[in-house]
Amino acid sequence: MEVRKLMLAMALVALVISTGQFVSTSAAGTVANNDTANRLNDAADVLNKIMATPDKGIPQDLLDKAACAVIVPNVKKGAFIIGAKYGRGFIVCRRANHGWSAPAGVKVEGGSVGFQIGGSETDVVMLLMNQSAINKLLSSKFTIGGDASVAAGPVGRSSSAETDAQLHAELLTYSRTRGLFAGVSLQGATLRPDDDANKDMYGKTMSNQDVVLGSGQPPASAAGLIAALNRHSSRRS
């Protein structure tokens, strides 16, 4: 009898432990999903705020020419050390006819002194201007200024202030800090896929290439970001 009671008690303990582990894992997944959803909303907010100030934002004609956009919201100042991890964001590319693809996760790491921007938080926006830049960025690892030519993007209502370097750059880069928006050098920073974010959004492992070049629908959590992109530039010029 005592042996049976002991065995029953051990079985109950094992059940509690296993249930606790399940709950813990489930909760961790929920936190990860919420974190990705929050970054998607932040990315939409970054684009809306930038385009709400036409005299100091991304020139409309440049946004209309861009093949893809990378938005990395809330980059922390404390991470601005060479070799450190800078932030996590998303890449979205044009559809063949009009509109934008589903977003894929990216991580930005490393970089030169030009990426050490003051302020408590900095938003980073990158415009990919041609197919060559897309092909390079969708590889497993992409170095700004190494794998593709880069320039600090001009600001204002139009791109008339472009320099020769900007006219020929594959990638134009911007930052927004404490409401101030400007072109910024990201020379030497690297971008690579954020596999965890993709799994959060799509429920399975997906490559960035499959996401942004495929015909799959964006997750519901990306509705705000896609709406903002379509509102500000629904068709490539």
Q: Could you please describe the fold and organization of this structure?
A:
The chain is an alpha+beta fold and 237 residues long. Strand 1 and strand 2 form a beta hairpin. Helix 1 crosses helix 5 and helix 1 packs parallel to helix 7. The protein starts with a helix and ends in a 5-residue tail after the last helix. The N terminus is likely disordered.
* Spans where pLDDT lies below 50 across 5 or more residues: 3-30, 78-84
> Which class of secondary structure composition applies to the elements?
alpha+beta
Distance between the termini: 81 Å
The major beta sheet can be summarized as:
9 strands, mixed
- The radius of gyration is 21 Å
What share of residues is helical?
25-40%
The total count of strands amounts to 9
Q: Per the principal axes of the C-alpha atoms, what is the gross shape?
A: globular
User: What's the tally of helices?
Assistant: 7
Q: What is the arithmetic mean of pLDDT?
A: 77
Give the DSSP E fraction (strand runs of 2 or more residues).
Answer: 15-25%
Oligomer: single chain
Order of helices and strands: HHEEEEHEEHEEEHHH
